[in-house]
Amino acid sequence: MSQPPRRGPGRGPGNQRPPQRRHRPVLDGARLTAYDVLDGVTSRAAYANLLLPQLLRERQLEPRDAGFATQLAYGALRATGTLDAVLSTLVSRPLAELDPRVLDLLRLGAYQLIDLRVPAHAAVDTTVALTRAIVGTGASGLVNAVLRKVAAGGDRDAWVAALAPADEDSRLALTTDHPRWIVDAWRDALDDPAEVEAALLADDAAPEVHLVARRVGRDELVAESGGEPGPWSPYAVRLAGGDPGRIGAVRSGDAAVQDEGSQLAALALARVPLDGPDTAWLDMCAGPGGKAALLAAVRPGGVHLTAADRAEHRAELVRSALAGNADVDVRVVDGTAPDWPAGSFDRVLLDAPCTGLGALRRRPEVRWRRTAADVAPLADLQRALLDSALAAVRPGGVVAYVTCSPHTAETVDVVGAAAGREDVEVLPVAPLFPELPGLARGGYGQLWPHRHGTDAMFIALLRRTR
User: Fold this and answer.
1) Which of 96, 153, 163, 389 has the fewest C-beta atoms lying within 10 Å of its C-beta?
2) Predicted TM-score of the model (pTM)
3) Known catalytic residues?
């Protein structure tokens, strides 16, 4: 009697293998978070310093993983130009033609290999797993092949030796992770050429967290936060790291996160001697409100503070920062076409919109997001705003022109045009801060990360003489 044909194992009636379930792999939380920051910057023009803390709070990573995610995200964003220079030699088509998600994943993996010297198997395998989960299996093959070539090429020193151009400034741009045009701008802004490399490298260092004591004593804030008094501003506290949102004084608004350089910019306006009445102050481009809040805290009694911004959502941030302060007025006003009468104010702070190149430590993506072509239109706006600020101040009053950029076109050139007027006098900034070395930039003030541990804030004081 013939036997029925044998079925494959496990396939007989009543003995079918249950269908396999596809499980999403368990992904490395730190690396996934870092990728999500890069993706947010690339796809939504997000700012890493705002997005990363939000993700860390939502995901509640262990401190070690949170630290690694921060190092990966900020480091890969800072090193984008160097990483792309490496990757472009290993990918057969222009990087701009890659799926942006794949390019961000390649950058994340390459940064681990080149700068952090993570073992190749760990950096490649985890990045391939992320790629497979985020983009798909097909893309994971490309990522695997390219990252193995990155690993074979060695660390940063080896890749720089292989790729660096012959001229010094182009090499400096590659080694310090800056576009060449920013290297040129720093060389132009610094008196001593020997400082250029130190200034560029300072942009790549992880910044401290700076707090400002507004309605609380600094000693009390030091005790509560575990930080150290800032060396320059009497209201500053510096923290090595951690989440400032955990500090009660920050949550209540009695203190806030604010770079010490920004504090000094506001204090310069408040400290400069003034003849005549001193009862009306204006912060002309006040959003998001940090400088306005410090001015409100340090003003003498009887001073009315007006804070203006052209955007309603930024004015709302100013209102929040000034909550609890009496005798303040927040207005939605375009500073180039204001509705206040000429000569209405005794002191005017103009924290002008700028490229933000002075805060590259805190906003690592800005160096690659901005281009040299952005400078001239901003400088035109800055000149228009400064003319408006000088019209807003009374004869004998003072305007503080401030930018978070050391670029000459946004600083010395803008103020120089106004300083040439017969009714304007430049007041030196450095004598207001005798304890602060290396501040003077001619008659103006220029802070630098490598000199002062602050953002690269520019400060000019102009008195309206008639």
Assistant:
1) 96
2) 0.90
3) 404
